[in-house]
Design brief:
The chain folds into two domains: 247 residues, 2-Layer Sandwich (BirA Bifunctional Protein, domain 2); 89 residues, Anticodon-binding domain (Rossmann fold). It is 38% helix and 20% strand. The chain is built from 15 helices and 17 strands. The strands form three sheets. Strands 1, 5, 6, 7, 8, 9, 10, 11 and 12 form a nine-stranded mixed β-sheet that branches. A five-stranded mixed β-sheet has the order 14-13-15-16-17, sandwiched between helices. A three-stranded antiparallel β-sheet has the order 2-4-3. Strand 10 and strand 11 form a beta hairpin. The chain is elongated, with a radius of gyration of 28 Å. The chain starts with 17 loop residues before the first helix and ends with a helix.
Length: 420
Amino acid sequence: MTAYKAPKGTKDVLPEQSYQWQQLEALIRDIVKKYGFLEARTPVFEHTELFLRGVGETTDIVQKEMYTFLDKGERSVTLKPEGTAGFVRMFVENNLFGEIQPTKMYYLYNPVFRYERPQAGRLREHHQFGVEFFGASKPSADAECIAIATELLGTLGCGGLTVRLNSIGCPNCRPRYHEALKSYLREHYDGLCETCKVRFEQNPLRVLDCKVESCQQIANGAPVIGDYLCEECREHQNGLLKLLNGMGIRYEIDPRLVRGLDYYTKTVFEITSESIGSQSAVCGGGRYDGLVEEIGGPHTPGVGFGLGMERLLLLLENTGYHMEKPVRYDLYIASMGEAAEERAFLLATSLRKLGIKVEIDHIGRSVKAQIKYADKVGARYVLVLGEDELATNEGKLKRMSDGEEATTALNAEQIFKILC
């Protein structure tokens, strides 16, 4: 018999682990609703052209990491490698730009697929939480996105948070920087890796994001984009820093930070935590003022971020953040004999309608084994039904924590009062 295993870079969420995801998701929903964000969901796959145009053909994601294939209609489709492009497509396709702006959306169950070396908290299939904020050009929109991320991480007890910031300019000032950067890189062209030699021609800014050590050394001496910003970009960055200072959010300007996606303009940021070790970035995002237009809509500013859920759960594990395991069953009804089994089933049905979490025997255990099972699965109370209980229409509710017993009629409403 073939021993099937999950594909490399994927991971099952086991039943006893799912409560961690649910509690984290509930906390996220509580935070984003304070800012007025509404949940939206996009398909798991999109037409490949969306990512070629939106994410950028010179990015590592497009060149090395996308899961792309032809469907049965010979159309090229791609499992989404990130969240923003799909949300921009949805924004344009559904004419959301025609509604009152701004549009605030978030995604929570968002599977993302990248063919890369699996690492701690970053799998080939992982899940992201993120926000997308359309129609707002002021730095307050950037600050609000950063505030959401830092509030979430701070609430979860993540220590040593720092927001790394940079401005990568706009179409007005970036060409001048590109010229200066290419002039510098031309002098060091032979030391670039083969990928960066292609980037040199197509998008020299990508060289600053290369992870090859020789390219990093070259990048360290490159001109700084902050010296080439136009007045609008400089004012936007200064406005953002003023708001971050006002909120007391710790940040540092990183002139080499460009992020790995071509659609960013002006603000880019990453949030790091000392709690996760060498792979310190737990959140990243920025402004993408030209992406809606690139996808076919009207000029609409946008800003957002993405955060890996698996990585966040790993971070919580490292920090010792405690998630309370929920009570699985309020009551276990043990039964002896066919008549008692039927009564237990019907009583459980009535109690569930009242909101009580109930379990009964489904596999024919002895009463002793049923009670042992009830203790193992953490049932708060046990009620045993046999011939005597059926004859008197009464039974004893036993509280498992201390053994205290209470007599009750075999009536759902009466049992409900005792349990609650």
